[in-house]
Amino acid sequence: MGDKLTRLETIYLSVWSVMGTGILAIPFAIGQFTIRDGWLSVTVVLFTGLSIILVAIIHNRCFPQQSVMQGLTLSFGRIFGRAFGLWYALCLYLIAATVWRELIVFLEVTVYPKTALSLLAAVLVFPIFYGLHKGIKSVGLFSDFLAPLAVVVSAVFVILSMEDVQLSSLRPILTDGLTPVLRGAVVPGITYVLEPLVILQLVQDLNRSKSLPWDFAIVVALVFCFLLALEVVSIGVLGGAIAGLRYPILEVIRVIKISEFIERLDTLYVMAVLASIYIKLAVFIYAFCKAMEELFGLSSQKVVIWPATLLVWAGSMFLFKDVDSMGQFIILTTPAYFIFTFVVLPVLSAGVYRFFHPKPHETS
């Protein structure tokens, strides 16, 4: 039991699976469709967040203590189950590679504009390998340490930013209609809010997998509050300029000054982003390793941790031509891709299994 994730650690890891890169990409993605009403786009998270709760309930009832990969095999058999499982594993890999590329772009823009791409990409290779070799519990303990700091720092950030917030930037409401709001809600409300479902692949590493639906409800509420505060502050401070900025929150932090002796708080922001992305990367790479273990019948996920980490590192550099192609992939492609992989597949798997097996599967 000591090597398994507690409920609190599960909630933290789920939140970081959204906010690890969400703090970078979500304000930018919403700003491509709406500015003044961007905070309304965030409210859609509350409704779409119900989907991850329902998926967790369905999965728990049909496959208690079974991962998504194991559920696919039980439902569709070895051949078709492994075919769907391969798709699922590739999705986890693609997410991890995209997250790693987002980190590279962020470091390149903010800190190391002249450093080679391969060197920037390698910054987390050994930390991730070492952390995952110790087990997902070590990542959970790190999230335990980081979460209280993040709450305090975020609260201070919002308070300090209020001096520069112009409420007029948030009014009038819905002057362009509801369509831009809904288009802006696609990325945060679908792509990012579905990412906590990766935890279903880690159910055997959880102390209490039965509480996942309630845990996800807490995660959705926390993510909503966090994103709403970020959107209100960024729109209030930056106004219309938010549409042309890659990292709006970073620009807001650069505006903050405390008296005449504390400036450039963006250094702390970069450190916080690096730590949160480390957690998100570790979670998805670990889930990818667990999926590969179950897909190919390996003795342990530790067998593939090193090659999987290197594979994700390489994919982060070669899967996307440039930052624009990555942005287009996130905004235009991932919503449908994630709906099928994280919602349709588990629900379809549960439906097929329940049709052929009236009683839920029980592990010995």
Structural notes for this entry:
It is a single chain. With 364 residues, the chain is mainly alpha-helical. Helix content is 72%, strand content 0%. The protein has a single domain, classed as Up-down Bundle (Amino acid/polyamine transporter I), CATH 1.20.1740. It has 12 helices and no strands. Helix 3 crosses helix 11. The protein is globular and about 65 Å long. The model has no long low-confidence stretch (mean pLDDT 88).
- Globally, the shape reads globular
Tally of separate domains: 1
Strand content bin: under 5%
Distance between the termini: 18 Å
Describe the main β-sheet briefly.
Answer: none
CATH-defined architecture: Up-down Bundle
CATH homologous superfamily assignment: Amino acid/polyamine transporter I
Radius of gyration, in Å, reads 20 Å
Low-confidence stretches: none
Say how many strands there are: 0
* Number of distinct helices: 12
Q: What is the average of the pLDDT values?
A: 88
Order of helices and strands: HHHHHHHHHHHH
CATH class: Mainly Alpha
CATH-derived topology: Amino acid/polyamine transporter I
Write the layout of secondary structure elements.
Elements: H1 7-31, H2 38-62, H3 68-110, H4 117-121, H5 125-134, H6 136-161, H7 179-192, H8 212-238, H9 248-255, H10 266-296, H11 305-318, H12 323-356
Helix pairs in contact: 1-6, 1-7, 1-8, 1-10, 2-7, 2-8, 2-12, 3-10, 3-11, 3-12, 5-6, 5-10, 5-11, 6-10, 7-12, 8-9, 10-11
In brief:
The protein is mostly helical and 364 residues long. The protein contains twelve helices and no strands.
